[in-house]
Specification:
Elements lengths: L1 H13 L8 E5 L4 H13 L4 E5 L9 H9 L3 E5 L7 E3 L2 H8 L8
Parallel strand pairs: 1-2, 2-3
Antiparallel strand pairs: 3-4
Helix pairs in contact: 2-3
Length: 107
């Protein structure tokens, strides 16, 4: 973490006017542990977004809501497979619709 903090300081010093992204990649299947990881990294460098991987698995990726609401860090991309094309921009409306989709549940 000290190395990350040092890199952050050097980049800020050398390129003060440059717009940059600090994205943290998190495994959506890790649940609340991902929130702890995001806290640790955000203490060291100003995170501008999160990339959630393994959103195609059994996990519903509830961490997306926790990271945004508790830390104010937006989810920017999601990984839904192993190919390059499987990295997609995060669509919050589609995410909420899928999260509450009950069409495959029995009544």
């Amino acid at each position: 973490m000290q190395e990350l903090a040092k890199l952050d300081r050097i980049i800020s010093r050398e390129y003060p006017d440059c717009r940059r992204e600090n994205l943290l990649v998190l495994d959506a299947a890790t649940g609340q542990n991902a929130l702890s990881q995001a806290r640790e990294f955000s203490d060291v460098a100003k995170l501008t977004g999160v990339v959630l991987t393994k959103m195609d698995g059994t996990s519903k990726g509830g961490i997306a809501i926790a990271v945004q609401s508790e830390l104010g860090i937006p989810v920017k991309y999601i990984g839904v497979g192993e190919q390059l094309d499987d990295l997609q921009r995060f669509d919050p409306d589609a995410y909420v619709a899928a999260l509450f989709n009950t069409s495959d549940e029995e009544c």
